[in-house]
TrEMBL record:
GO biological process: ubiquinone biosynthetic process
Keywords from the named record: Ubiquinone biosynthesis
Record's protein name: Ubiquinone biosynthesis accessory factor UbiT
Pathway: Cofactor biosynthesis; ubiquinone biosynthesis
Family: Belongs to the UbiT family.
Function recorded in the entry: Required for O(2)-independent ubiquinone (coenzyme Q) biosynthesis. Likely functions as an accessory factor.
Taxonomic path: Bacteria, Pseudomonadati, Pseudomonadota, Betaproteobacteria, Rhodocyclales
InterPro entries from the UniProt entry: SCP2_sterol-bd_dom (IPR003033), SCP2_sterol-bd_dom_sf (IPR036527), UbiT (IPR016830)
Domain SCP2: from-to ranges: 72-159
Length: 171
């Protein structure tokens, strides 16, 4: 039987009764990232690994968001600037830059213009919009070092992102 003759599989959620589907949707909508810290042993191992693969994953994700939710014109002050993202409990240090063509991995950065440091949990909560950058910053869970004007630009750009539009949700 050819692939063209197969019927599409129904979405799993459509197979559930309405009330159960609603309860599951409500429960998933109220889930929060639990408090956690990655083990120090893991951080020591990860810190010794090449940082290129996770840095490349970060710039790839940023480039996919570029022009869709990250307005290129608002990022112009980042052109030629070196940024560093530290995931403190994971032992990751991700260096990247921005130019006219987009984000790219930065190599051999001795003194980045801006360093953002937080735990994996806090970055995840920030990305999922469970926490905002101001709350993390004032509780000293997000640390900014270097050019604070550049840090404010990054923060304000992230705050302006319409994540629901990116995910295809409608209000």
């Amino acid at each position: 039987m050819s692939q063209a003759h197969l019927l599409p599989a129904p979405r799993l959620s459509l197979l559930l009764p309405g009330s159960l589907r609603q309860r599951i949707a409500h429960r998933l909508g109220t889930l929060r990232v639990p408090a956690f810290t990655l083990p120090a042993t893991l951080a020591r191992v990860v810190a010794r690994l090449p940082q290129q693969p996770p840095a490349q994953a970060l710039v790839t994700a940023l480039n996919l968001a570029l022009d869709r939710v990250l307005p290129r014109d608002q990022l112009e002050p980042l052109i030629g600037r070196n940024l560093r993202m530290r995931v403190s409990d994971a032992g990751l240090t991700l260096d990247f830059s921005f130019n006219e063509r987009g984000f790219h991995r930065a190599k051999d950065v001795l003194k980045p213009d801006l360093i953002l440091s937080a735990t994996a949990r806090d970055y995840l909560a920030l990305a999922l919009r469970e926490e905002d950058a101001d709350t993390l910053f004032f509780s000293r869970r997000l640390i900014m070092e270097g050019d604070t004007d550049l840090g404010l630009l990054v923060k304000n750009t992230l705050d302006a992102v319409d994540w629901d539009a990116l995910l295809g949700r409608r209000s």
